[in-house]
Model the fold of this input.
Amino acid sequence: MADSENRIEVSHVTHEFHGAALRATGGKLVAVNDVSFSLTDSPPQIVNLVGQSGSGKSTLARIILGLQKPTRGSVTFNGKDVYRLGGRDKEEYLRSVQPVFQDPYGIFNPFYKVDRVLWKAIKKFHLAKGRSDGLEVIERSLRAVDLRPEDVLGRYPHQLSGGQRQRVMLARVHMLQPRFIIADEPVSMLDAAVRVLFLNILIDFRDKYGMTTLFITHDLSTSYYVGGDIMVMHKGGIVESGKVDDVLVNPEHPYTRMLLSSVPVPDPDARWKDRAQVVLAEEEEELVVDKPDIEAPNP
Amino acid sequence: MRRFARSLWKLWSSSHKFQIGIVIIAVFVVVAILHGPIVATIGHGQDPLGTAAYTPWQLPSRTNILGTDRYGRDILALTVTGLASSLQVGAVAGLISTVVGVLVAFIAGYKGGKLDSLLSGTADVFLVVPSLPILITLSAYVTNLSLAAIGVILAIFSWALAARTIRSQVLSLRTRPYVELAKVSRMSDLEIIVQELVPNLLPFIGVGFANAVLGSIFALVGLEVIGLGPSNVIDLGLMLNWAIGWGTLSLGMWPMFVAPIFVLGMLFFAVNLINIGLEETYNPRLRKVAGA
Ligand SMILES: Nc1ncnc2c1ncn2[C@@H]1O[C@H](COP(=O)(O)OP(=O)(O)OP(=O)(O)O)[C@@H](O)[C@H]1O
Ligand SMILES: [Mg+2]
Done:
């Protein structure tokens, strides 16, 4: 699998939302605006996609996952349009591209035990034959993400912590061994320690299994942490991209500078001054960044 | 299946209002199902509903617990029979309108787009059509309807409300992350609807069903009271019609009046208790306010 390259090509993707609620703004909202980039699994990498709330990151992620057909443009996987895949190719695509979603509370149907998402993956992707085989696969994957099977299996979602739930999703990814992970703000609802644990697992997946992650975040400190490439998204378009070390050190686009300036600095006076300037400069919304926390030593 | 039982048990134990409502309904349903034997027991071997079975216009006594009517029929036996017909009509109408409403709601809500506009538009038309005048006109032309046929006719006017409420729930559920996860887990639309959406909507479906049953029962009562009901069926509305027409109140023959009103009132009370109980269980904000 690893010797042939897999490639997701996003080309000139634009997505507009229409609706009665948007009539005030001319009836449409351009959530994603002419975005093009590609992801490859050779070499495996983590690609950061950063941007403020509402910049269109989730919409782009859902488009890549085949969940929302874009208004214009195309997403191809190894040359085939993701929205025109037949049965076998569709299976192959979903086998190769899997998500980790933002909200660790919403990814489980409250009606079922957490085991179910893992068993579904086994059944739908034929990962194991029979119950004991399946259980073995599940337990192995749970251990791979630092979860003890007995802490998780047989429980209902509300009986797990947010971090545990998010890692169950990673265990699912570990079972499926996709080539690409589309991770939409996977750590934004986790506390700092669990966050680091989670990011380390993503890095681990890249190094051990050669998975490429599109890592979506509005928190620049997590981008610092995982490194690699970064794309900065603003009002639906990608305004700047490059290596994390270049872009975050020498930002070219004013928006990137604005993002950076809103990262809190340990000095309280400086922080308040910066915040005030940011508010004056850009009327926009919250950017939760806790850089000092994340650079705590790894557990 | 065990999950199902478990969630039903959770629902049951979560609210006393829900329990009381269910118990009342259960008692009525049992009585309705057993109405044949019950009526036979009341009659002690003869038909208590036969004309001149007893002396007319009796107040409650040991032989006739609720007394007798103008034709000497036992009022308790009348009430039990009436309850059975009313519930039967309600069940037919409620079942049909819930099934149709749920199907429409899921197709419209889950698929969205043009299909949604078409189906919701149709439902809206049925919602604003004034049902009573149409029912009155219909019943003036059609006579000798069976209980089932009446149920079907009433269902035509009650599916739209169920469809509407459930559709709005489907809309709010279909973009949940777990639905999207199901999609990337290669689950089909049908699997997603049945396994991911329906279980979470059961309480709404239950409420929709209960309301449709109640609505249909009362619609039939309304028709009967103004004298336009099907002539060959004894239901609670027809008893009320007689009670009014015979001037039973001025005669002091209160059981003829009180019995059907009590049963209808209890049905109404029970269904609303169930509604409130469900709402408290599934809408925690309300529960906090209500302090239950
Ligand atoms: N289903 C929808 N209908 C209409 N507008 C939508 C819909 N989904 C998203 N939008 C709008 O599209 C824009 C981009 O939304 P999106 O969720 O992609 O942002 P985001 O970058 O993921 O934000 P966040 O960081 O808050 O998750 C927003 O303005 C949002 O209001
Ligand atoms: Mg988002």
Remarks:
- Residues 192-209 of chain A form the longest helix (18 residues).
- Chain A touches chain B at residues 62, 65-67, 90-91, 94, 98-99, 101-103, 106-112, 117, 120-121, 124-125 (CB under 8 Å).
- Chain A has one domain: 7-295.
- The pocket of magnesium ion (ligand 2) is lined by residues A 57-58, 102, 184-185 (CB under 6 Å).
